[in-house]
């Protein structure tokens, strides 16, 4: 049991740590990938004519895949960050950077679902 004035083993606040830098780098790359996918999907779907012609991105399955692709990327990255949190914690490293990255990515995933799915897959979902 730690004493009152003793820090926990995994708490390295105020120290340089490669795990925190790696978590920030991972979160930023995953966020750019997920949001970039949503932006490209929105631009691609905006080229669909309103006449019902089925082109490469205008069919129902294509629109649904384009709408949920970005959030799925962010979900997978967020879950991976939580797996990495556990592994770093188990090895008594600085785990809190990965934990924060996981919550950031899951929050961004919820934002992309709520803001991006309806405009991209709206007609395909009957919205």
Question: Overview of this structure, please?
Answer:
The protein is elongated. The mean pLDDT is 84. It has 127 residues and is mainly α. The protein has 3 helices and no strands. It has a domain at 27-43 and 57-121. The relative contact order is 0.19. 70% of the residues lie in helices and 0% in strands. The chain has helices at 18-45, 60-90, 96-125.
Topology record:
Layout: H1 18-45, H2 60-90, H3 96-125
Protein name: Membrane protein
Keywords: Membrane, Transmembrane, Transmembrane helix
Organism: Mycobacterium numidiamassiliense
Which ranges are low-confidence, i.e. pLDDT below 50, for 5 or more consecutive residues?
Answer: none
Elements, N to C (H/E): HHH
The biggest beta sheet reads: none
Count the DSSP helices. 3
Gyration radius from CA atoms, angstroms: 20 Å
* Count of individual beta strands: 0
Mean pLDDT: 84
Structural class: mainly alpha
Cα end-to-end separation: 57 Å
Keywords: Membrane, Transmembrane, Transmembrane helix
Transmembrane segments: 22-44, 64-83, 95-121
Protein name: Membrane protein
